[in-house]
């Protein structure tokens, strides 16, 4: 369909697919033969993953991949080699017209920014099928050295709050306050009732303990120190990455950044670094 961008948000247990501008994505569960093609956000079985991508475009969206524009989400663990191999398949085998890949945490932040407040800095708590990641984003850029991973689908709030605290305190001091104030939940394993409240309580407890220890060091127990914790839990946070991708694909950024098939054939995958 000319002019439309197919947004593919691939997860370990399935995908969310749709055209940019659609209100919500279609759930595309991997067939039994494709299960295990991804694990912890990384492609493990390329043959199965490639067939799954075909299924998403042809089966679920009803489009011929050749000539289609695609926005693909990627994991924080995706390597350049994986992006290169992905681009080669989409351009050389499927013949898509344009392709761009964006980290799912960046897209979740885009969704929250559009729905609740204009912000390009936040701590994205991404709960997937096999991995929970805590990802600090500052001025639209991921602080890779501060990212924390917990290898379980749903992590209890005390353990997760400790990882969040570690991620924030390994980030530059001048952005810590903004990270505490913009904690964004994304992904299906963050949807449990009361999860955001429990997480807020656990992290606030750590902040209070840290502040008390600091005031004791100062010798001034009445000193006002510490941070305000704000956990945002949007209603459709399980689809946050796809919804953010839809917004991204409708904007000027996609038009400017997306690599065309002609450009890829001329210069290769360097644009995907």
What key attributes describe this structure?
14 strands; Nucleotidyltransferase, domain 5; single chain; alpha/beta; about 270 residues
Describe the structure.
The protein is of the alpha/beta class. The protein has 2 domains: 5-106 and 240-272, Nucleotidyltransferase, domain 5; 118-238, ATPase, nucleotide binding domain (Nucleotidyltransferase, domain 5), CATH 3.30.420.40. It is 40% helix and 22% strand. The chain contains 9 helices and 14 strands. It has a 6-stranded mixed sheet, with helices on both faces. Strands 8, 9, 10, 11, 12 and 13 form a 6-stranded mixed sheet that branches. Strand 2 (14-19) and strand 3 form a beta hairpin. The longest helix has 24 residues, at 195-218. The chain is elongated and about 70 Å long.
Task: Give a topology summary.
Elements: E1 5-11, E2 14-19, E3 26-29, E4 38-39, E5 42-43, H1 46-60, E6 69-74, H2 80-93, E7 98-103, H3 104-115, E8 122-127, E9 132-138, E10 141-142, E11 148-150, H4 157-169, H5 176-181, E12 183-186, H6 195-218, E13 231-232, H7 240-250, H8 252-257, E14 259-260, H9 261-267
Parallel strand pairs: 1-6, 6-7, 8-12, 12-13
Antiparallel strand pairs: 1-2, 2-3, 4-5, 7-14, 8-9, 9-10, 9-11
């Amino acid at each position: 369909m000319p002019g439309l961008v197919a947004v593919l948000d691939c997860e370990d247990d399935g995908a969310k697919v749709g055209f940019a501008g659609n209100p919500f994505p279609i759930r595309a569960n991997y067939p039994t033969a494709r299960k295990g093609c991804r694990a912890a956000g990384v492609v493990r079985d390329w043959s199965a993953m490639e067939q799954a991508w075909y299924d998403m475009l042809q089966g679920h969206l009803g489009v011929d991949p050749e000539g289609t524009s695609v926005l693909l989400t990627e994991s924080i663990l995706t390597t350049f080699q994986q992006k290169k191999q992905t681009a080669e398949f989409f351009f050389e085998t499927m013949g898509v017209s344009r392709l761009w890949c964006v980290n799912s945490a960046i897209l979740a932040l885009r969704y929250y920014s559009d729905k609740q407040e204009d912000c390009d800095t936040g701590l994205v708590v991404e709960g997937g099928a096999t991995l929970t990641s805590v990802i600090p984003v500052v001025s639209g850029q991921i602080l890779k050295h501060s990212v924390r991973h917990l290898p379980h689908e749903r992590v209890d709030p005390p353990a997760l709050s400790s990882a969040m605290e570690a991620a924030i305190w390994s980030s530059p001091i001048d952005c810590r306050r903004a990270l505490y104030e913009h904690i964004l939940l994304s992904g299906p394993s963050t949807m449990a009732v009361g999860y955001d409240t429990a997480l807020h309580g656990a992290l606030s407890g750590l902040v209070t303990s840290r502040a008390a220890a600091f005031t004791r060091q100062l010798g001034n127990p009445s000193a006002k120190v510490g941070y305000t914790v704000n956990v945002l839990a949007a209603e459709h946070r399980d689809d946050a990455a796809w919804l953010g991708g839809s917004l991204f694909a409708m904007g000027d950024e996609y038009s400017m950044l997306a690599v065309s098939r002609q450009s890829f054939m001329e210069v290769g995958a360097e644009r995907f670094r």
